[in-house]
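Thread title: Can someone regenerate the structure for this chain?

I was given the following input by a collaborator and told the matching structure tokens would be attached. They weren't. Posting the sequence so someone can regenerate them.
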Amino acid sequence: MVQATIGIIGGSGLYQMDALKDVQEVQLDTPFGKPSDDLIVGTLEGTTVAFLARHGRNHHLMPTELPFRANIHAMKQLGVKYLISASAVGSLQEEAKPLDMVIPNQFIDRTKNRVSTFFGEGIVVHIGFAEPVCHQLAEVLADAVASLQLTDVTLHRGGTYICMEGPAFSTQAESHLYRSWGATVVGMTNLPEAKLAREAEIAYATLALVTDYDCWHPDHDSVTVEMVIGNLRRNATNAQQVIQETVRRLAQNPPPSEAHSALKYAILTPLDKAPEATKQKLSIFLQKYL
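Best answer:
Regenerated them for you:
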């Protein structure tokens, strides 16, 4: 099977990477079902990368319907060690304006119906998650954004991403609550990915692409669907440039990451006592600890 050290998950508006060369589609099965779509493997800046459209290339999956475990398992099967997740978000702060890019370093979970662990069925794992993003990968990502000097884009290093259930957007009361918590942006997808990537010992960072101010903003009513779609398109174009530059930098100097050994002290169940069926199901994660 083809291998790729760097993975990319594209969110709303980012359904393909135009700069990918020597492209092939890879169909993968996992113990958790099929991923959102076939994975696209190709070369970017001379480096093999794996790309997945989070909602499917035709955007047919709602946030609650996303096969998060299958998506991350598929990336692990391909050998991904660094995962860049692009995500459309609403802004909760005046300074994070539409078209800006935020590299969050924290998450708050407001989801209700998401399974965010691979484990169970006889194997108990508690990963450390106080710092849910790989700082080294996030720094490479942020430096890539800064180096490009994109028009009308301000980079925000750090910030908190509220992950809500959806698919409806926030009420005004919720939006004001999130602002009172000091959160920076709100989205519907990235926290389950971050948890599962950590369990999979994959370094993970989010490129949050602001499409609009959430409904707290006094000018919210002047935001039109056409404006949001236009921002999605511009964000997708900008994101592809950022990802290309990030891949170039990662290929030249892949940073160490604590995420790559996240399970070392997290497995509480003695594996020689664990059910064989569960060990087999999770072998891709457990093989170096057996």
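The first strand starts at residue 6 and ends at 10.
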